[in-house]
Structures are given as structure tokens and as C-alpha cells.
Q: What sequence folds into this?
């Protein structure tokens, strides 16, 4: 049985592990929303299948799909990928799935954040979002894990933790008026401390340029190890990302982490800049929330990679920079397997490999 608990992870002795700690599985959700994915999600589905196959080299993958797409998803996915029927509004498991916490007795529990489609009625990307909001709880029920319903709006992609007390996030997202306008910065920190058992929040000013999530940290940087991060970098002073990356670098350099370490910053080149083509835009149904016009700048970033059981699954986005990104990641993770997956179709939906995956820690 799975129970919704009234206490908090901190009070119960649970903490959120870093992504580089061992995983029991990775969860994903099938893309089918026609006002986000072109041609009803058909090209994106192929990209999701390739991501799932890559992850499954080291980790069990579970995909969820709505009833109408179940058969199609089953036909496209290899047998070793588990498929579960579950309704969702879209397919960003990082943001709609549970953030897991573990204790030192080998128990894990889910944290189920409130979800409002990246901004609710202020600047959210779609309405309604109730099916997405129910996903974290359903995942915990399937896994028979207890859960906590956290009292704030938060998406998993807006936080990174190092497993040793430090959480990285952006002010652009967590302090955005569309998330928790009734709470102060300090009150949000207190909730993060209670629900993830972190000791220190490293606030970065902004996320990646033109990111429709209001600046998720997972599209800007990743945690390589405690005290060590990799940051999206841009060398063109005329590009808006140039100033953003420098501001973030300054913010990281000005702070120490929860254990008092200076933060080592590695740089990852920014792909592109990349834009939606005429052909790509014409396959998407027009809606209010998501900008999918030709010429729209895409929030492309190699930092949006997944770490799972000593394996890096990273997006291939631009033949001019893919090789360089791969070499940098190989240098940062010398003991890890590295798999690049063509991820342009995922980027067209507004995120990338990290955004469409959520890890379940091994206990
Ligand atoms: O950055 C993420 N974690 C998710 C991206 C969501 C894009 C919605 N269209």
C-alpha cells in the first residue's frame, strides 16, 4: 500500500539523492499533444523511443501512455521497456513525476509537488493540467512507495541537488509570480529544506534564454559532482545568452556550497543558436500557450542530459558543436558510458532529455 504522509522528509530522516547516485529505474511519458508536438507527436515519439532505448542500456525504463496511444506506444517500444497506461496532459516526466527522497534504512518516498503547467493562469503553457498534476501520486502508487504532497508549485526541472546538502535553482523560475507569489524567497527555501533535506540553496539569477519554463536550471547547467557543475556557455557577445551565462558564472563563483566548497565551473558550448523552421512549425496545432512559429528561438542546451547508473544520455542538437560537447562530457565523466541521441524533435517541444525523464533511486 502507498500512503500520503502528513509529516515532511526532513522530519522523517529522508534526503534527496544526487542524480549520479544509483537508480532503480527511469520513468518517461509518451508525447502525443498536437499543440506542442508536430504531426500529433509522431516524430517526437521516435525520439522518445530512442532515448528510452539508450537509457535501457543501463537502467530499467518505464513509459506511461494514455489509453488511445497505448497500442501505438507498445508497438514502437522494445519489449524491455515497461509500458503502463496512465493519462497525462503532456510528456515532461521530470516536472510532473515525483522527486524521490531516501533514508539510510533503504526506504524511498516520493515528493509530489503542485504542478501548474509552468505558470498556471499567469503564463502557463496549457490548461487544464490536472492529469499532469496527478502523475507523481500515481507513480508512487504503482511503485508502492509512500509520498508527501508538498505545499508549493514546483517542477523537477527547476532544481538540481548534489546529494550533499546543496540545491541549485534560478530566481527567474522559483520567484516567478506564476509559481508561488504568496511566498517570500526565504519561505520557499524553508519548504525546500523541509521536503528535500537540503541545507543550502544556490540561487542563480536566470535560466537559458527564451526558455518557456521561466528559466529551469536543468536547461542551463548540471551537477557533475558535489562542488562541481557544468554550465551552458556562449562566446558571442551579441547573443542574449552571452550575458546570462556570465551572470550565472558570477553568481556561482560568489558562493560556496553546503559543505563550504568553492564551486568548480566547467563550460559547455551552446548549440546553434537554433530556430524553428517553417516546415517544423507547420505541423503543430496553433494554441495560446506555446510559441511554435517559424523563426522562434529554441532553448537548446547540452546541459539538459540525464545521468543514470554511470551512463550519460545527452542530446545531439547541432553538428557544429555536438562533437565538442561530447568530448567535454567524456572528460567530465571518464568512468561513464556516453550516448548521444538525436534530440531536435524533443527540443521543438520546449525541453530535452533531462526534462522528459525522472529517476527512481535504488534503495
Ligand atoms: O525543462 C523542463 N524540465 C521541461 C520543459 C517543458 C516544456 C513544455 N513545453
A:
Amino acid at each position: 500500500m502507498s500512503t500520503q504522509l502528513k509529516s515532511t522528509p526532513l522530519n522523517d530522516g529522508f534526503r534527496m539523492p544526487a542524480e549520479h547516485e544509483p537508480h532503480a529505474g527511469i520513468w518517461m511519458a509518451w508525447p502525443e499533444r498536437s499543440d506542442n508536438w508536430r504531426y500529433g507527436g509522431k516524430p517526437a515519439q521516435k525520439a522518445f523511443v530512442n532515448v528510452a532505448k539508450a537509457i535501457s542500456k543501463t537502467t530499467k525504463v518505464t513509459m506511461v501512455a494514455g489509453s488511445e496511444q497505448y497500442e501505438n506506444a507498445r508497438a514502437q517500444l522494445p519489449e524491455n521497456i515497461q509500458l503502463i497506461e496512465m493519462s497525462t496532459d503532456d510528456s515532461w516526466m521530470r516536472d510532473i513525476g515525483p522527486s524521490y527522497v531516501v533514508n539510510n534504512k533503504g526506504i524511498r518516498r516520493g515528493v509530489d509537488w503542485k504542478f501548474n503547467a509552468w505558470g498556471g493562469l499567469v503564463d502557463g503553457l496549457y490548461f487544464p493540467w490536472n492529469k499532469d498534476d496527478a502523475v507523481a501520486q500515481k507513480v508512487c502508487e504503482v511503485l508502492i512507495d509512500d509520498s508527501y504532497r508538498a505545499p508549493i508549485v514546483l517542477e523537477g526541472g527547476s532544481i538540481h541537488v548534489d546529494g550533499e546538502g546543496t540545491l541549485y535553482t534560478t530566481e527567474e523560475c522559483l520567484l516567478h509570480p506564476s509559481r508561488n507569489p504568496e511566498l517570500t524567497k526565504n519561505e520557499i527555501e524553508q519548504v525546500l529544506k523541509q521536503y528535500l533535506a537540503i541545507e543550502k540553496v544556490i540561487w542563480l539569477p536566470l535560466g537559458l534564454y527564451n526558455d518557456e519554463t521561466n528559466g529551469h536550471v536543468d536547461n542551463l547547467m548540471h551537477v557533475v559532482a558535489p562542488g562541481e557543475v557544468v554550465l551552458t556557455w556562449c562566446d558571442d557577445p551579441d547573443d542574449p545568452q552571452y550575458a546570462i551565462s556570465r551572470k550565472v558564472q558570477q553568481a556561482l563563483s560568489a558562493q560556496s556550497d553546503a559543505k563550504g566548497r568553492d564551486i568548480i565551473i566547467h563550460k559547455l558550448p551552446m548549440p546553434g543558436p537554433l530556430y524553428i523552421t517553417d516546415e517544423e512549425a507547420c505541423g503543430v496545432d496553433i494554441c495560446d500557450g506555446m510559441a511554435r512559429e517559424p523563426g522562434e528561438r529554441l532553448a537548446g542546451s547540452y546541459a539538459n542530459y540525464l545521468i543514470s547508473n554511470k551512463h550519460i544520455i545527452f542530446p545531439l542538437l547541432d553538428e557544429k558543436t555536438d562533437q565538442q560537447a561530447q568530448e567535454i562530457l567524456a572528460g567530465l565523466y571518464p568512468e561513464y558510458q556516453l550516448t548521444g541521441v538525436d534530440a531536435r524533435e524533443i527540443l521543438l517541444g520546449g525541453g530535452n532529455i533531462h526534462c522528459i525523464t525522472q529517476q527512481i533511486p535504488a534503495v
In short: The pocket of 6-aminohexanamide is lined by residues 36, 92, 94-95, 125, 155, 157, 212-213, 216, 218-219, 290, 349-351, 355 (CB under 6 Å). The first helix runs from residue 9 to 12.
